[in-house]
TrEMBL record:
The keyword 4Fe-4S does not apply. This is NADPH:quinone reductase. Pfam families: ADH_N, ADH_zinc_N_2. It comes from the Bacteria. GO terms for molecular function: oxidoreductase activity. CDD domains: MDR1. It comes from Hoeflea phototrophica (strain DSM 17068 / NCIMB 14078 / DFL-43). Residues 10-321 form the Enoyl reductase (ER) domain.
Length: 326
């Protein structure tokens, strides 16, 4: 089968077309003919080893100490079940599915196998393969931080910093689906996009300081890697929560030791890959409450170009890599 692989860390040029044996579904596994995948921050970091300061060794341990352990990237994908292994009961050939292997990767290929008990779910009926492929990374991260770490509830005031990216654009929509009032920050050329996603108020982060508001937010979710508790703590309401989706070690340490008054808290950590979250997001999508924002699409053969575009400052939301049958 055709795939895109990298055997060294580096620029997008390390991504090369290769021919690999077609995998087979072992007991408990599902073989998927992949129709679309994406470039996520996970793919970018696993390819480039551009890891937030302080987590370099953790990154190398996760992705491979000297060279990539997983040579075929693709942290999320959609496609059609081609075959199932013995004992598989949840999926059958012909099912349209989307999946979130996360750091297991594998989406930059014609086929992938994934355990039926892993993060895989039926596609929402009205979405196409490109749209479904772009749900998991941004959607599941936003859902985990907002619902599971912060307990978002109707009427909450939420500030999303970095709302024009994959996680941020999902966080705006997930917050609205939970009945929150959303203030979102983005750079000048992306303000309309963020407003169209449903944000109630939009801030150009190059002209206005979102940390200037006092006691204003129940939840502040940062995807930009620029937030710390000392910077944003006083913008939280008493009992409010700062969510550091992306932060380096020193920001985490600064936040951990910062004096937090009035029940205000801060959380970082990892958002897991779970089938139940994919089903939850598929329900939101089916109800019209969540649609991943797709900026551009590239063919699988042009994966290096897709990564180059992903890195450009103009990029908004998600970059999809399509892989329709020839
Ligand atoms: N903890 C976890 O489990 C987890 C899971 C997924 C992702 N992550 C991490 O979360 C981060 C976000 O992921 P993503 O996929 O959403 O990335 P992304 O698509 O690149 O979005 C990041 C956003 O940050 C904004 N930004 C950049 N510099 C900024 C600044 N100085 N001030 C304000 N905003 C700024 C950008 O918006 P503008 O262009 O509009 O400025 C961009 O849209 C990544 O670092 C990723 O590794 C963590």
């Amino acid at each position: 089968m055709k795939a895109i692989a990298h055997s060294n860390y580096g620029t997008p040029d390390v991504l090369k077309p290769v021919d690999l044996p077609k995998p087979a579904a072992k007991p408990g596994e599902v073989l998927v003919r992949i129709r679309a995948t994406t470039v996520t921050a996970g793919d970018y970091r696993a390819r480039s080893l551009d890891i937030p300061p302080g987590f370099g060794l953790v990154g190398r341990l996760a992705f491979g100490l000297f060279r990539p352990r997983r040579q075929v990237l693709g942290a999320e994908f959609s496609g059609v079940v081609e075959a199932v292994g013995n004992d598989v009961t949840r999926f059958a050939p012909g099912d349209r599915v989307f999946a979130y292997p996360g750091a297991g990767f594998g989406g930059y290929a014609e086929y992938a196998v994934i355990a039926e008990t892993a993060a895989i779910a039926p596609m929402p009926a009205d979405l196409d393969f490109d749209e479904a492929a772009a749900i998991p990374f941004g959607g599941a991260t936003a859902l985990n931080f907002l619902r599971d770490k912060a307990g978002i509830k109707p009427g909450d005031h939420v500030l999303v910093i970095g709302a024009s990216g994959s996680v941020g654009s999902a966080a705006v929509q997930v917050s609205k689906a939970f009945g929150a009032h959303v203030t979102a920050t983005a750079s000048a050329g992306k303000l309309d996009m963020v407003g169209d996603l449903g944000a109630d108020q939009v801030i150009d982060h190059s002209r206005e300081n979102p940390a200037a508001a006092r006691d204003a937010y129940d939840i502040i979710l940062d995807t930009s890697g620029t937030a710390t508790y000392p910077k944003y703590g006083s913008s939280l309401k008493p009992g409010g929560r700062l969510l550091l989706v992306s932060a380096n070690l020193w920001q985490h340490i600064g936040t951990l030791f910062a004096r937090k008054r009035g029940g205000r808290k801060a959380s970082g950590g990892y958002a897991p890959e779970r089938a139940e979250d994919l089903r939850f997001l598929a329900d939101l999508a089916a109800r019209g409450q969540f649609m991943p924002y797709i900026d551009k699409r590239f063919a699988l053969a042009d994966a290096a170009q897709a990564h180059r575009y992903y890195e450009s400052p103009a990029r908004k939301g998600n970059v999809v890599i399509t892989n329709a049958p020839a």
